[in-house]
Design brief:
There is one protein chain. The protein is an all-beta fold. Helix content is 0%, strand content 46%. It has no helices and 13 strands. The strands form four sheets. Strands 3-4-5-11-6-9 form a six-stranded antiparallel beta sheet, with no helix packed on it. A three-stranded antiparallel beta sheet has the order 8-7-10, with no helix packed on it. A hairpin with a 5-residue loop joins strand 1 and strand 2.
């Protein structure tokens, strides 16, 4: 068994498919990798895959985990696993992307810039549409979320794009 993630949760299994020389489906790779603490110390991340473009190019044989990606990938997509630690929160931020967050374990509080809050529990799904927000774990257990982020144009308010505000 692989080592535990920095969050204390089990490592993440990743299975990647592709095609052989005859165009038939094959398993290209499989790994089990722990999440790792980010510099802010509030969460542990694991990049699963990226695409350089949207729509994605299934002919690109690059292992998407090895592509340079920030919080989002300009022009592309990102999937990562985030383990938000108990009692911690992210900075307030906004990205030019549509984000799908699937709570795999625990629960998380989503707060918007005006202070409005919702708790999303295990099995819940968040659709984050370029809004200014933060994540907060108000429990004593780690919350694991799978995030899929796909580039999107900035939201236009009165015809003016709202600026991104990405944490460093």
């Amino acid at each position: 068994m692989s080592e535990l993630s920095d969050s204390g949760l089990p490592p993440v299994q990743r299975v990647v498919t592709g095609h052989d020389a005859d165009g038939r489906a094959v398993f290209k790779s499989e790994d089990v990798t722990p999440t790792r603490m980010i510099p802010s110390g509030d969460a542990s991340f694991l990049l699963i895959w990226t695409t350089e473009t949207v729509p994605a190019d299934n002919n690109d044989e690059t292992d998407g985990r090895h592509r340079e990606a920030g919080l989002t990938l300009d022009g592309g997509s990102v999937i990562r696993v985030v383990d938000m630690l108990p009692g911690k929160q992210s900075p307030m931020h906004r990205t030019n992307s549509i984000d799908y967050g699937i709570v795999l374990e625990g629960e998380i509080e989503l707060e918007l810039e005006d202070g409005a809050k919702k708790t999303v529990r295990q099995g819940g799904i968040i659709v984050q549409r370029g809004t200014n927000h933060l994540w907060r774990n108000t429990t004593d257990k780690v919350c694991r979320i799978a995030f899929v982020l796909i580039e999107a144009p900035a939201y236009l308010h009165n015809g003016v794009p709202l600026p991104e505000d990405k944490p460093h």
